[in-house]
Amino acid sequence: MITMKHAFFTVVTAIFAAVLISSCSEYSGADVVKNVSSSDESAFDFIKGFDASYVDWYEEKYNIRWKDTDGTEKDFLDILKAHGVNTIRLRIWNNPSLYAEGINDGDNTLSRTINMAKRIKAAGLDLMLDFHYSDTWADPGRQIVPQEWESLKSVTAIAKALSQYTTSVLNEIKTQANIVPKYVQVGNEINRGLLVDKATDYTDNNKHERFKFAGRAYGDENETDFLPDTFTKYLKAGADAVRAFDKSINIVLHVASDGNHDWGWFFNPIKDAGVPFDVIGYSYYPWEANHGTIAILKKTIDRQIKKYGVKIIVAECSAHWHDDSGDGYAAQHNTYIHMIDPNTGSVYYDLTTAESGTVSYVCGTPSNQANIIRHIMEESRSAGAAGVLAWGGDLYGNYKWGMFDGEGKALQSIKEFE
Questions:
Q1: How far apart (Å, rounded) are the C-alpha atoms in residues 312 and 264?
Q2: What three-state secondary structure class fits 412?
Q3: I need a surface site. Which of 64, 251, 355, 393 has the fewest CB within 10 A?
Q4: What are φ and ψ of residue 367, in 5° steps?
Q5: How far is residue 287's CA from residue 292's CA, in Å, rounded to a whole number?
Q6: Residue 370, CA distances (Å) to 7, 183, 184, 319, 376 in order
Q7: In the chain, what percentage of residues exceed pLDDT 90?
Q8: Burial letters for 326-352: b for 16+ Cβ neighbours within 10 Å, e otherwise?
């Protein structure tokens, strides 16, 4: 995910934002979506996914009425399904009530997850369940152990708690919502590992320190706080629990792209430890400098398919649809650095750009959002990916990467799943 992470904490200068917004708003050229479908159902059941983790909370908090692209009020999932989405991703936190960020960022409790799972079942869509194994956001910057597990006295005890929790959640969803997830993520963006950090301030999930039994994915073995194999023990505990619960579930290991197509350092120890997995998922945000070009993403997909014999998906991606930088984030990142060739200055032909000094920017427009999502889908699929999921598309109101506008009406990017 874009670290809600960055979304609520990154600030850029007002001058930069003002220049950028002005430049894009002055663009007067054509703003047209190229109508090309990225679907090819004859190849395989390509995952066309959408993270809808905010939906239940938004509806409860704001009484939102969602609208299709033509303005017709419909159920949120009915809108997605009508435009080709076949998989809904839901994150789950152990106890989000401990954090203001958790309560105000979707409050993704088990009960809320079950509510959405019932709707997913009724809509005839597949469910991808995303365990964060935290009370709040888990991502490359933080993997905070749930408070309930802090007092456990050993790696073995923690692994057992993780396994039992995984089984319990799956059982509750199956029992109460009558659905078994088709995909289960064992952790979210686990580049650094699992259960790496311990909270130092439960009112701020950015304040943490190294957990005594940290499951770090890498480190210097001479470090006194680096425990070799702890990460794979935790990962195996979760994956084994999923496999034991239902062998039909596809186990997903999810990392954030790092601009390097060789991930042997990460996945080889996991494979050697006997951790079962069926899918590798990458987060890919084209404005993030360290996520690399789409060409590198394609190399990564091709290499990992050949190396590990598993399916590869883009587990998260997004693009912004306007340049109003209320929090500065969109203005900072709408360079879309990997959409513009640094040597020639050329850009994907159907993206509108603006200038600020000597730098070209990709404007935040509904059609640019749609075209970027389509490019990621088409390029990933051509490399052999098994699916692409949008993240943040359910962010309602003025959020830049949402796929619904401030009135709850679907933007044209939703049609890229057709």
A1: 15
A2: helix
A3: 355
A4: -75, -35
A5: 9
A6: 21, 26, 27, 8, 10
A7: 63
A8: ebebbbbbbbbbbbbeeeeeebbebbb
d(CA 269, CA 277): 13
pLDDT in tens, 132-173: 999 999 999 999 999 999 999 999 999 999 999 999 999 999
**Closest listed residue to residue 51, CA positions, set 170, 169, 132, 168:** 132
Minimal CA–CA distance to 87: which of 39, 132, 124, 42?
Answer: 124
Confidence of residue 220 (pLDDT cuts 50, 70, 90): low
For residue 168, give every residue at least 6 positions away whose Cβ sits within 8 Å of its Cβ, in sequence order, or none. Answer: none
Q: For tokens 């951790």, name the residue.
A: 275
Q: How far apart are CA 20 and CA 17, in angstroms?
A: 5
Token pair for residue 328? 């500065």
pTM: 0.89
101, 189, 379, 416: the catalytic one is: 189
Instruction: Answer whether 256's CB lies under 8 Å from 191's CB.
Output: yes
Contact between 326 and 398 under an 8 Å Cβ cutoff? The reply is: yes
Query: Which of the following is catalytic: 288, 316, 379, 416?
Result: 316
Determine the Cα angle at 74 with ends 73 and 75, to 5°.
140
Q: What whole-number distance in Å separates Cα of residue 367 and Cα of residue 261? A: 29
**Gap between the Cα atoms of 102 and 223, Å rounded:** 32
For residue 189, indicate whether it is catalytic.
yes
